[in-house]
Amino acid sequence: MPELPELRVHAERLARSHSGSVLERFTPLSFTALKTFQPDPAAAVGTALTAVRTRGKYLIAEFGDLAFIVHLMQGGRLTPETGRARKPRGGLARWEFDGVASWLLTEAGHERRAGVWVVAGETEGNEPLDGLGPDADSVDEAALSAILAAAGGARLHGVLRDQRRIAGIGRRLANEICWAAELSPFAPSARLESEQRSALLAAIQRCIGASIEDEATRDTMVRSAERLAAVHHRSGEACLRCGDVLRQVSYNAYEVDYCAACQTGGKVLADNTTSKFLR
Ligand SMILES: [Zn+2]
Fold first, then answer.
1. In angstroms, what is the span from residue 260 Cα to ligand 1's centroid?
2. CATH code, 136-263
3. Closest residue by Cα to residue 242 from 221, 258, 229, 253
4. Which fold has domain 4-120?
5. What is the pLDDT of residues 49-100, one digit of tens each?
């Protein structure tokens, strides 16, 4: 799933290529695409694209007072298209601009979970952005400390991925951040010490910054297999820092990759389906 860095750079791409373009038509191509009934997306027709930005894992295209908020989920993509096939493969929605330009929202597979919300006026605090924590690259030491304290005994990896606590981090970044900070993905969040919280904040900023830089070198959104990864999906390979073998543990149906030597004092984490006594 694209995370904050990929989305941030992609928003800049779309803004660069289409800012000022006037919307001629918005067409849902799938009955699951449009998640809102009001306002009518047609209200944006005749208005120029004023901004494309992100919030958490959402892309937000603003046409004056009206915003299209797009969630790509796992396999969604929002890309400029040249031709306009009547029934594009995986097509969910299309924005047609003056002239020939258009954007196409597609989703690979058959899950049809990606979607578009249309919001008039303030987007913050309204569906689907209501309840989101602050963007991960905007938190400072005090904010991060408050987030960790509020999370209590919840495990660090889960807290980093919880969009209601901190927004924009998915599985890859959570793995990378824990590794960069040399922290156990299973550490109880509220028990991190001051030095560990500082290391965590630095790791969040460093991992997001590096991914933004990497994404910015590409013409289109990078495929997940090509995203920067020191540990993510690298279990069995050697740790870049210490050379020990990277490991994977299943936790609540998702995979966590880590280095025991760097992150858990050498302790091998057990799947939570088989053991209750681990940290
Ligand atoms: Zn290591």
1. 7
2. 1.10.8.50
3. 258
4. N-terminal domain of MutM-like DNA repair proteins (3.20.190)
5. 999 999 999 999 999 999 999 999 988 999 999 788 888 999 999 999 987 7
Classified as helix, coil or strand, 251 is strand
Identify whether the C-beta of residue 19 lies closer than 8 Å to the C-beta of residue 51. yes
- Looking at the predicted structure, is the pLDDT value of residue 199 above 50? yes
Which one, of 256, 257, 249, lies nearest residue 273 by Cα?
Answer: 249
d(CA 263, ligand 1 centre) in Å: 7
Neighbours of ion ligand 1 (CB under 5 A): 239, 241-242, 244, 259, 261-262
Query: What's the whole-number mean pLDDT along residues 193-216?
Result: 98
**CA 236 / ligand 1 centre spacing (Å):** 12
Question: Which band of pLDDT confidence, cut at 50, 70 and 90, is reported for residue 2?
Answer: very high
Find the helix or strand (DSSP H, E) in which 10 lies.
helix 4-18
Cα 227 to ligand 1 centroid, rounded to whole Å = 20
